[in-house]
Amino acid sequence: MTTRRKLKDAIAQSEELSFVFGQAVVQQITQAAQEAQDQVALLQSVLCTFTFVPDGNPVRHYYDPDELNQWAHNDIQINGIRSALWVRPHPFQPDKYELVAGLRRYKAAEILRLETVPIKVFNWDDRTAFHAAISENANRRDFSALEELDNTLRLLEIQLGCSMEEAVSLLYRMNNAAKGISNQNVLVSPEAEVVKQVFDSVGRITWQSFVATRLPLLKKPPEILASIRQGDIHYTKGIILASVKDAETRFHLIQEATEKGLSLSEIKQRVKSLTSEVKETSKPALHHRLTQVMQQAKKNKRVWKNPDKSQQLEELLSQIEAIIAG
3-state class of 46 per DSSP? Predict the structure, then answer.
């Protein structure tokens, strides 16, 4: 298990988020983390609404249910929640809190049916809350490719002040210009400079690689992406399921994978079986093939005039007659 840094230290050292949100925000969160006192709140008073995230979804899509259940019973049930959940007063529901960081701990508390949880309350605006949520998750473990896609686009939305669709369009236009297949003025635009600065600050992937390896994920079937983002299936399972071309078959397989908790190897086996079935059914039936061959043979006069080929046909015909008779 990887050792996690304290969240306030992770935030203070997050250079890419310092660029996106500003150093003043970093200092504000760090100071708040040092000064905030633990409180106790009813679990039902903490809501996972994520109104501070551009698309309203948590920054991490998936938690393995078996791993989460084991952790809840083997650690949290014995030792309690040692790190308080980070919350803010809910912007729309009085006397409620909105979860900012600590979704895994929150889910463990639900599994154990805990009535109360430790919290730290911060009066953060949307921008600052999103900053804290990204920092907490980025330092827990590596993001999947889809999580990295979503979170990078969220950062671009904030820094460019545009929609996700507009950010994606800008990246594709920049990529076409870099390849010399469109006007290159976009590469020296203020928006392109912001894109380059964001990717330079993050440092994990270039914007060109992001276009080549991450943006194509948006073209996967929407129900696959929705299932991953809702935490129903893991990213790796979703990519395998996306290879099933028939929409109805894919839908039922997603349902089965979700309801039965199929492992990655089980999903691969089912997809492989489906692919084999498709190949088999795509072949013409044997009697149709035989009929077609006989029709082609009758029309091909050169076959009958060639002694060697006539001899081969006679031998094959004898074998067919023997099979039928037997």
Answer: strand
pTM for the complete prediction? 0.65
- Find tokens 């309350």 and name the residue: 121
Beta partners for 42? 116
Closest CA to 71 of 101, 43, 112: 112
CB–CB of 221/242 below 8 Å? yes
Distance between CA atoms of 33 and 120, rounded to whole angstroms?
8
In tens digits, the chain (326 residues) has pLDDT values of 334 444 444 444 444 455 545 555 556 666 666 677 889 999 999 999 999 988 888 888 888 888 899 999 999 999 999 889 999 999 999 999 999 989 999 999 999 999 999 999 998 888 888 878 877 766 666 678 888 888 889 889 888 889 999 999 999 999 999 999 888 899 999 999 999 988 887 677 899 999 998 999 999 999 999 888 888 888 889 889 999 988 898 999 999 998 888 889 999 999 988 877 655 555 556 777 777 777 777 777 777 777 777 778 777 877 787 788 76
H-run or E-run covering 120? strand 116-121
In 10 A of CB 48, how many CB atoms?
11
